[in-house]
Amino acid sequence: EDGAVTVFAAASLKTALDQIAAEFGAKTGGQVTISYAGSNQLARQIIQGAPADIYLSANARWMDEVENAGLVADGTRQDLLGNRLVLIAHGKANVLNDDQMRDLDLPAMLGDEKLAMALVDAVPAGQYGKAALESLGLWDDVAPHVAQADNVRAALALVATGEAPLGIVYATDAAAEDDVSVIGEFPADSHPPITYPVALTRMAQDPADRAFYDLLSSPQAATIFEAAGFTVLTPPRD
Amino acid sequence: MMLSVDLQHHMPGFDLDLTFTAPAGVTALFGPSGSGKTTIINAIAGLTSPQSGRIEADGQVFFDSARGVNLPPHRRQLGYLFQDARLFPHLTVRQNLLYGSWFARKRPARAEFGQIVEMLGIGHLLTRRPAGLSGGERQRVAFGRAILSRPRMLLMDEPLAALDEARKAEILPYLERLRDETGLPILYVTHSVSELARMATTVVMLDQGRIAASGPADQIFADPATAPLLGIREAGSILNARVVSTDGDGLSRLQSGAGPLWLSQPGLVPGRDLRVRIMARDVMLSLQAPEGISALNIIPARVESLTQTGRDILVRLEAGPETILSQITRRSAQLLDLRPGMPVHAVLKTLSVAPGSVAQSLSSAAQTPEARE
Amino acid sequence: MMLSVDLQHHMPGFDLDLTFTAPAGVTALFGPSGSGKTTIINAIAGLTSPQSGRIEADGQVFFDSARGVNLPPHRRQLGYLFQDARLFPHLTVRQNLLYGSWFARKRPARAEFGQIVEMLGIGHLLTRRPAGLSGGERQRVAFGRAILSRPRMLLMDEPLAALDEARKAEILPYLERLRDETGLPILYVTHSVSELARMATTVVMLDQGRIAASGPADQIFADPATAPLLGIREAGSILNARVVSTDGDGLSRLQSGAGPLWLSQPGLVPGRDLRVRIMARDVMLSLQAPEGISALNIIPARVESLTQTGRDILVRLEAGPETILSQITRRSAQLLDLRPGMPVHAVLKTLSVAPGSVAQSLSSAAQTPEARE
Amino acid sequence: MTDWLTTQEWQAVALSLKVSVVAVLASLPLGVVVAYALARGRFWGHGILNGLVHLPLVLPPVVTGYLLLLTFGRRGSIGQFLDQWFGIVFAFRWTGAALAAAVMAFPLLVRAIRLAIEAVDPRLEAAASTLGAPRIWVFLTVTLPLILPGILAGMVLAFAKAMGEFGATITFVSNIPGQTQTLPSAIYSFLQVPGGESAAARLVLIAIAIAITALILSEWVSRAVARRIRAS
Amino acid sequence: MTDWLTTQEWQAVALSLKVSVVAVLASLPLGVVVAYALARGRFWGHGILNGLVHLPLVLPPVVTGYLLLLTFGRRGSIGQFLDQWFGIVFAFRWTGAALAAAVMAFPLLVRAIRLAIEAVDPRLEAAASTLGAPRIWVFLTVTLPLILPGILAGMVLAFAKAMGEFGATITFVSNIPGQTQTLPSAIYSFLQVPGGESAAARLVLIAIAIAITALILSEWVSRAVARRIRAS
Ligand SMILES: Nc1ncnc2c1ncn2[C@@H]1O[C@H](COP(=O)(O)OP(=O)(O)OP(=O)(O)O)[C@@H](O)[C@H]1O
Ligand SMILES: Nc1ncnc2c1ncn2[C@@H]1O[C@H](COP(=O)(O)OP(=O)(O)OP(=O)(O)O)[C@@H](O)[C@H]1O
Ligand code: MOO
Ligand SMILES: [Mg+2]
Ligand SMILES: [Mg+2]
Question: Roughly how many angstroms between the first and final C-alpha of chain B, as a whole number?
Fold first, then answer.
């Protein structure tokens, strides 16, 4: 190859990854090309032979698919990032602490209105949200009020425009939007851990691929990821 | 009703600039292909707007470039029979026929549906759609459609060109009746001199967008100067005559200013005033009254003038107060030694007078249509 | 070239079932509106496929329902002049005219582009598009387009109906020349008896999808039985004559089987054989040879038969080997006491013979066209 | 059949049909008017109107959905107005899905009708006006019947597009089973999860069956109309 | 200008233009042939062909993209065949984006051309055939020039659709900057991250500007063509 690194990454990572790629370019002169799309689309494309060197998924199950297809380079899969799930409201809202979140009376807060989420059976953010509501015993009451968007950003937009008063999104998304405020964070044990696995693919032959892969778990990268609201899961190896 | 038209319109390679008035009766627009006839009719109907001019019917202004008036076509109440039939393809023949009457339901009907359908011989087509009709069938339906829209004036662009003689012979008298009984004014474009002679009370002759001659039909026809415009073979005069009696063998005796006249036309009613067109080429001249000859009409007359037209001589005869034209060869004129003032006999076969050449006089035909030019 | 047609086609309300052959020369299809003329021409051109039958030209089978042959239109090499002009709206007049010649470039040209353009008077239109053309201009362009496609046969559906007399008078002689000089066979639909008489060597008369009469033009015209089909006023006979001399005053002397004949036609070349159509209503009968009369043609003849047609009498005269028809009133017949066998004089004004009624004889016109019926 | 599809899937099929039919029928009058204006009109803003009509085609559907949300949503200017004065609410309702489908299909509807209008011989309209028909009647009795095949073509195209519309719909009214979950939303959901392909395929087959039925029906009607007008 | 957009954004604009133009031009001949067959042909499979052409309209774009990935991808049957025998690769190349755009725009292209063909007076074609023109020449010299405005309309519609195509493209060839990242994909990427709205809005404006330019140009050409054919 020509030394270029091709990364297939979940679209929600764009801000952070673009910055990291820029730093990589500045430091090594190597070029990183990143294709942002849905994790499912990217996984299918890799399975169909896409020229991806690195796959960064927003969801463990699609990484499993790629791995099952035998396309993950041995020993390179790791859970890179984590995220938190928050309840948001349109405009200003009182912030609830952890305990208050456990006693959430969501049906009362919603009244007749809708709760914006990502697709609860299909999109990871929706799946985590549904799990959280189930473990809090709220799901059955809330389910009829859930408006499912095709991704987290669209759910966020529903709340930002005031179309829905409340929504469940990632902390990373809620942070940057002025028209919404975070009511509270769902307890980490109320849903499966939110992880963003990364792996080198079998197509990655170039040293640059490895270099960028390594950079992703470097302290510099960690700073950038954290600034974007992610939690960094892999302890940085110096 | 009186239509007055004043038009100027410039197109690349063609200029229209004319003024004429069409009084009640049939005004024929006559002129070679491309002389502007359709353009004029379109302007009157409101389908094209001339660059300048004024069109007025009975005091109602249709168009006036100076005052910015331009009445839309549907408010002009004109029936337009197009050169191409323009039937509505999605409607049946019956629906086509009735199309205009819906919008005209407040005006009185001039003709009944059944009567028109029968005259046009389209009864068996009523449920068909235009796509399968023959050329003549289309034109007949278009004619019925225009009439049934109860127009206060008819514009007809070569309406009979696609019809066979038999059908023409049925439609022409109907048009005459329309003209005479209802006073419906008709503007009629035609290339056929015989239709022209039969129908027209006023003639407007066009040439390249300008008026070449215009006036009452009798005058235009009796004028040797217009003969070349009509085509030389079509020169002739019009005699005014009254039907005196009709005999058992079908012959009718008429009295004209030029003397008695025998005609073999069906349907001549005693007392009626008629216009009889006599073609110059059908009039034979004899020095003595011939005998033992089949021709029944032998009219004493006096030579008024001899005009050379092309290779032949057009002899203008004075028969009482009337004028008769006779077209003969130069050889005959020499052999008979014709000179102005000479007494002669005009010999005319009864059957030479075509049925199409006899038309009812119309009071308005006697009016003097003004043709400003 | 010989065309033979055998067609059966059924449409709701209309049945076509006929057989005829068209030899070289002009074959006229004549019949009232809706009698099937366009349908037949379309079948010959290959634009509609009849339900059964066989169409063959010079041994080449165009269509044969029994053998499943159906040659596509472009392989039939026919020039078709449509009742509606059907010019290509996206091409200029020049491009329209030249459209067919590209496909015909392997066949010899019969007429030159410039010559056709001039004859049709469309030189000033060459760069225009059809949309702005007048009705007559379109038809002329369509005519040029058909001729310039170098067809081996011309199909013409009422080609001249939209044209003025002057233009007709220019085109007809050209068609005759085409017919005579190149032997191009022409199938000609018309409602005009004078065009029919002038052009046709063979006549096929239609009525409601069937053949009412067919045969060589002379025979059809001289037959009193076909008079009603043509319209009674159009009855007449055809005399074959040879030009003897042309005098300084423009008169030509012809020799016919019926005796000498004077005509006032331009362009008659001594030695030429002509067909002269004499309208029955133009022929006057006289018991003695009249004197001091402008008519130059006085032909001694013998009454062969008297037929009542409508209100008049059609007298069939024997003049040498030729037949002349005269149409007179019953009153005249009585007054002259006409009976078969009686000697009479047929009197004919020189100018009664319309220029359109004189046509060049064609060797093939003498052939006997077979009309199977 | 009920075994073959779950209730929720049946609901999605029924809803998609309802949404698409309503979208096409409701936008038809406006579509005809706009097509007529674009075909025959010479007014200021012709180009802008034309551009506006085509926008939903050019923009990614999510963007259109987002713009719809901003204007027709609860807090959107037009949305508030319609809610207050007419009680019409699009947010999270099937009506919103219909609106999204209508907007996305509108360019196709208009183009087809416009082409048909441009093919009508203006001489026939002129003939109608000389017979006394005012302009609106000329349109209703001559132009409209002659463009029926074109309208039908436009409707089918728009219907098909409405059946397939996904991005704008889910962005505007999200995905509420039984209320706004259309067939494409359901299919999309299945494709998001590993192994969902076979379930998606079932729904895809249903979508195809519906579309082909609509196409064949319209083809058939359109031929019947055309046959009447242009008998040999 | 270069300040206003990043290099990567410029690449997306340029790529979208290239992809859309190529998609429209490359599918045009097939579009005309299919439209002619649908308009005039009476053959077995007419309905099936018609249905097939419209499929991309009915299916959610992701489904179309997925089907393209399965058939024209590196491991797809047709994809492998084309690669081995002709060296044509669609997978994750701009050519693939063009293929996706062409497939998605094809129904619009075909419908517009088909309507135009159906509006051509068959009597003109008959006249051409009597003048000696074989069927193919009749088509090229009479039918084709007369349907030019319709073809143009179809091309603009298809171009607009191609410019806006997103779902099928990103599913089939992913979103690789400089190679397969079209304008809509770029817009999508921005919309997926916090604070990306303004960048997305900029790109949306560019898309609108391009589309309106194309529309006005085509309108202008189409009027010029129509004016020649139907002078007063
Ligand atoms: N599809 C059809 N269904 C029923 N009748 C039809 C159809 N097409 C044509 N006809 C009828 O066939 C007859 C013959 O039509 P054709 O056009 O051949 O007549 P024509 O002799 O050319 O008449 P014209 O002199 O008026 O042009 C007409 O009566 C016409 O109405
Ligand atoms: N758009 C145009 N541009 C240039 N010339 C035009 C245009 N429209 C019409 N003309 C010309 O105007 C002249 C008059 O046309 P018009 O149709 O009025 O003639 P017409 O007298 O009805 O002839 P016809 O008897 O052949 O129907 C024609 O020479 C025609 O070519
Ligand atoms: O533009 Mo789409 O890809 O039909 O939603
Ligand atoms: Mg005209
Ligand atoms: Mg006919």
Answer: 20
